[in-house]
Amino acid sequence: MAVELDGITKRFPGVVANRDIHLHVRRGSVHAICGENGAGKSTLMKILYGMQRPDEGTIAVNGTKVSFGSPSDAIAVGIGMVHQHFMLADNLTVLENVVLGSEPRKGLSIDFAGARRKIKEISDAYGLGVDPDALIEDLGVGDRQRVEILKVLYRGARIIILDEPTAVLVPQEVDELFDNLRGLVREGLTVIFISHKLDEVLSVADEITVIRRGTTVQAGIDSKTVNARQLAELMVGSELPSPETRESTVTDQQALAVRDLTVRSSDGRPVVDNVSFTIHKGEVLGIAGVEGNGQAELVEAIMGMRPSTGTIALAGTDVTSLDTRRRREAGIGYVPEDRHRHGLLLEAPLWENRILGHQTRRPNSKGPWIDRAGARRDTERIVREYDVRTPGIDVAADALSGGNQQKLIVGREMSGEPVVLIASHPTRGVDVGAQAAIWDHLRAARAQGLAVLLISADLDELIGMSDTLKVILRGRLVADVDPATVTPESLGSAMTGAGEGA
Amino acid sequence: MSARLRSLLLTLAAPVLAVVFAAIITSIVLSVSGHGPIETLSLMVDYGFQPRTISLTINSATTYFFAALAVAVAFRMNLFNIGVDGQYRLAAMLAAAVGGAVALPGPLHVLLIVVVAMLVGAAWAAIAGILKATRGVSEVISTIMLNFIATGIVAYLLNTDRLAVQVAGSNNIGTKHIPESGHMPGLSLIPGSGTQQVFGFVIIAILAGIAFQVLLNRTRFGFDLRATGQSESAAIASGVNVKRMVVISMVISGAVAGLVGMPQLLGASYSYGLDFPTGLGFTGIAIALLGRNHPVGIAIGALLFGFLDNSSNILQINEIPNEIVVIMQGVIVLSVVVAYELVRRYKLVAEQRRVSRELSAGGTGGPAPEGAAA
Ligand SMILES: Nc1ncnc2c1ncn2[C@@H]1O[C@H](COP(=O)(O)OP(=O)(O)OP(=O)(O)O)[C@@H](O)[C@H]1O
Ligand SMILES: [Mg+2]
Questions:
Q1: Burial tier of A266 (Cβ tally within 10 Å: 0-12, 13-18, 19+)
Q2: How close, in Å, is residue B242 to chain A by CA atoms?
Q3: Closest ligand (CA of A392)
């Protein structure tokens, strides 16, 4: 056994995150952990990685009892972890981030040349395609995810924990990653991973442990003996949702019209290249593409967070010259791809996070004053309607599990009847039950005339939710796809430009 | 409610712990240098609680309070305004010069001086804000440089050829004496303190503290300011114009800094001379840290520093070096940082213990989150 966690209990103020959990992982296997949002998966992994101390229970690694005071103790016995939320320093390069904390020395100075070589080797060996000299702040979520994985491999971990590593990756990338993982496992490494994508879990894991409300529901299920439906039932006791949008609600009134939008990178290269599209009221426009093809820049340009050329009109009014706040006030809701960087104040209570991005509007403010009572009341509503699992609205956003943070953000951005919702990975990291609930909310709003720009790595979500579907490649919209007829496979190849004849 | 009380007590525990720790260190220093800690302390307490000294303590604290408040406004936005020092000196000198040059009826005269001081402080701080917003210059560096420049300007203007006059009966020079109409009347708050009144500015200080709290916690502007301090990227995504916020919060910080010299100027010296107190901006940084950028905390910190400053005057007479107090103040600030961390950890553990106790007492088998939807 590579890892044996027994009787683990961990309490937080107002919540028991883990209660008497047992997890046994065989060496040289891929073990998946499933469970709804807030079930306690991340907490359990943080305990195994030495970031949290269990209140009760024992940890054994390779048969030896251990007790970790900090992650460095865990790293010392060969455990590495990729977190659900990135732990990278924005203003440092990939190389510096990877080396940070494990500085390879050559005499007194840090051996950067050696480190760069090693990073290149690992990156090539596992097809991660990471440039050691890129600045983290210039990288998209997918690239940052790969840097995190590389960091763990670089430190020579033999037991690798991946907390939702695939949430922002498109299927091809997921396949690549899993091929790499299988390679690792053949070499005797052990992989523990968390995912809400059940198909993925079934295809890659040898064994599955399901956690619900802090306890093990079923440990070490052989993945060949279950299907996705049974797994979902074990997790949340409900059936698998499908993102089917039934009848079309598309109208002929323009909600968002983008013309000739171009965004340039700092070196003058166009990262969004002459993009034009129109979304009508009641329409969901999906944008499919491999991470890093300009989606993030497109969204930030529409939000006014990034300089661009071209015009943007909202419900017939030109908003090109407005700043982010004015655009939001004009009715743009925004679900950012990186919730920690752009969506939340982690140290602030939930009700203050309800205000964020909606500072100038009711029920959060009256004139120049913050309306505490109004904001609190509306936070309660979001918590209720979007099923945010939390002990209360006064806890810090930090204390919520990743999926519950996401539900709060989606609920917030759907408030105040937006004209357009810019949604980047709106169901990233939420469990199957909550995903269905968010889809229902989106569909209901769409029927009321909401226009949605949907960017997602989840092709089922894209195909199922979109009325119109476009493919983005190297900053350009290269193809229109009919969501009614396209299959995930053909969409996937369109995204990589396979049909382009390049 | 009792949970609230407990959390309040814990919040107070940190600074108290820090002061106790500082007292221990100081005792050791005193013992090593051959003075009895108990005797020294009782000397200070005896002297410090005489009505006259209490008045003086409140007066020092009033000044410190403004300095720390100015630092705290910027701190809340992650801006480090080291320039409070230059801002208040330049502001006080120019305001004193204006005040000495005009004759106006009572309250108007005071108001004019105060407004000039706030404007000068704001303008001087705005330079650093604008440099940061437009050129990305770190406010730490620019405010340090601006302190030097302010020192130079004050020295240049405080010359008998320019704004200063010879002070009658001494070889000190200062700005022209502000006439009676520009004085801020003192308050006889402390019975038995004789002629030593409390600065009328103590009321302004209290009002400023309340205004600070209201501005930060109750207004949209304050929300934007705190949001920017907590996460600049999230603030930008929420529509905050961070550059503008940088300039505005530096302006506010500078305006408050302009008030630092006012209690002394309008309540005691009525002129800006070579002997006008300096270095208050740095004391302000220490007190803002001690008070955790919260007005109540800052008030307590300011009173403590004021008490130490004034009660230490007795030490010299007893041939104990009163620099011991400076050591004590330094140690307090350092230990506060440590103590807050200790209390934070303790709080976490205590809270978890309480939860587990309540859960096992309640006997509800399910490990579901308390109060969350089932
Ligand atoms: N630092 C913390 N302080 C207080 N409560 C916390 C903290 N971290 C986690 N919790 C709580 O512990 C519970 C389990 O959280 P955890 O992050 O382990 O969930 P998860 O299974 O990873 O969920 P998700 O799928 O949404 O990421 C949640 O109820 C959460 O609110
Ligand atoms: Mg998690």
A1: exposed
A2: 11
A3: 1
Please give the distance of CA B55 from its chain centroid, rounded to a whole number.
18
Residues A196 and A331 in one domain: no
Q: Which of A213, A323, A359 sits opposite B367 (nearest CB)?
A: A213
Per domain, the residue ranges of chain B are 1-33+324-374, 36-320
Q: Which H, E and C letters describe A191-229, residue by residue? A: EEEECCCHHHHHHHCCEEEEEECCEEEEEEEEHHHCCHH
A249 part of a folded domain: no
Which residue has its alpha carbon closest to ligand 1 atom 12? A17
Pick the closest to residue A133 from A122, A147, A145, A154 (CA basis).
A147
Print pLDDT tens along chain B (374 aa). Answer: 455 677 677 777 777 787 788 888 888 888 888 888 888 888 888 888 888 888 889 999 999 999 999 999 999 998 999 999 999 999 999 999 898 888 888 788 889 999 999 999 999 999 999 999 999 898 999 999 999 999 999 999 888 777 877 777 777 888 888 888 878 888 877 787 777 888 889 999 999 999 999 999 999 999 999 999 999 999 999 999 999 999 999 999 999 999 999 998 888 888 888 888 888 988 899 899 888 889 998 999 999 889 988 888 888 787 888 788 888 788 887 887 787 777 777 766 665 566 555 555 543 333 334 333 33
Instruction: Kindly give the pairing relationship between strand A468-473 and strand A476-481.
Output: antiparallel
How far does the centroid of ligand 2 lie from the alpha carbon of residue A403, in Å?
7
CA end-to-end span of chain B: 26
Residue A484: burial class (beta carbons within 10 Å; 0-12, 13-18, 19+): exposed
- Are A259 and A126 part of one and the same domain? no
* Closest residue, chain B, to A323 (C-alpha): B239
Interface of A with B in 7-66 (CB under 8 A): 11-16, 19, 38, 55
User: Are A432 and A320 members of one domain?
Assistant: yes
In this prediction the pTM is 0.81
Residues A141 and A220 in one domain: yes
Domain membership flag for residue A243: no
| Closest approach of B347 to chain A, Cα-based (Å) | 10
Cβ of residue A320 closer than 8 Å to a chain B Cβ = no
Segment 279-318 of chain A within 8 Å of chain B by CB: 303, 305
**Residue A121, domain CATH:** 3.40.50.300
Cβ B240–A325 below 8 Å, yes or no?
A: yes
Nearest CA of chain B to the CA of A258: how many Å? 20
Question: Helices in B158-266 by DSSP H: which ranges?
Answer: 201-218, 220-230, 232-237, 242-259, 262-264
Contact between chains at A14 and B369 (C-beta distance less than 8 A): yes
Pocket of ligand 1 (CB under 6 A): A 12-13, 15, 17, 35, 37-43, 84, 389, 399-404, 429; B 369
B36-320 belongs to which CATH class?
A: mainly alpha
**Is the link from the previous residue into B185 a cis peptide, with omega within 30 of 0?**
no
Structural domain for A62, as ranges: 3-236
Cβ contact A370–B219 (<8 Å)? yes
Q: Is residue A304 part of a domain?
A: yes
Q: What's the ipTM?
A: 0.79
Chain B neighbors of A356, CB-CB under 8 A:
227, 234, 238
Query: What is the tens place of the pLDDT at every residue in B336-347?
Result: 778 777 777 776
At residue A193, what are phi and psi to the nearest 5 degrees?
-140, 155
Ligand nearest to the CA of A40: 1
**pLDDT tens sequence across A291-325:** 778 888 999 999 999 988 989 998 888 888 899 99
Q: Report yes or no on A363 lying in a domain.
A: yes
Angle formed at CA A486 by CA A480 and CA A491, multiple of 5 degrees? 70
Tally Cβ neighbours within 10 Å of residue A220.
Answer: 16
